[in-house]
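ok so i was messing around last nite and threw this chain in just to see what happens. nothing serious, just curious
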Amino acid sequence: MKIIEVITKRKDTLLGCWYGEQYRDTCVIITNGTGGNIFENRFLRVLGDELEKENISYICAHNSGAFQIIDLPSENHNRSGLTFEVFDNCEEDLQAYVDFAKAQGYKKIILGGHSYGCNKVIYYLYKTNSKDINKYILISPTDTEERTDGERISADKIQEVANEYKKQNKLDEIIPILYDEYNFYTAKSFIDAIENENHHNLPIYNNKNGFNQLQTINIKGLFVMGQKDGFAKQNTQKHLETINQYSKNKDNVIKVIENTGHTFRNNEIELSKTIIDFVKM
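result:
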């Protein structure tokens, strides 16, 4: 595995992990979910190892919402990471990795995301209508309109502070309240997460926004999820079938992996096999 740096159009530096750099036929690019990264999400490492065994290249594409805070030298001196994330930047993030893969001469590029990364992949494909992507993969796709009780309670508290920071022109300051006892956000990032409608592109349980982004994607997709994933409300098959129902391409693959959850603990090999089988179709 090799660490790579890609530069976005806005001049942010992102770090990716490149497996199988010696191959030049197919490259699978997978981007992370909320604060996700290759160190905390073991399945991202296992997937790289398994794809490399099949002579398939793989890039774990850390987007600007990876980790909590990333301090990397960049031309614009921006800090990145979940704390500072603005959803629409994912278009430039993913484009930087796609451009990297194209520059290596890959014949096929397959783009995927995990969790919140799925919403980013859909948004990217919707915005770019990219002809460079052959297939796409949604791993543990979620409806971002749905929140737990804890998330709703903390969101209300943080929203009040974020609005006050906005009035005081302090949008770039970090709000000293954890979201659901887990993540810190700046006022700008939190307001974007609450008010930006672009990431509500998988409205599985509240179809007020429609699936208009998904319905523009012509290429074949793989929709895979753990049977115990809490985001599926105890019916993972129906969760995935709803996504497929509103997809433009009806030749998609749906796969529920038994006895595992959102990050596929202890079932990383089965997830990898599912993805490899799809890549080889």
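not much to say yet. The chain has seven helices and eight strands.
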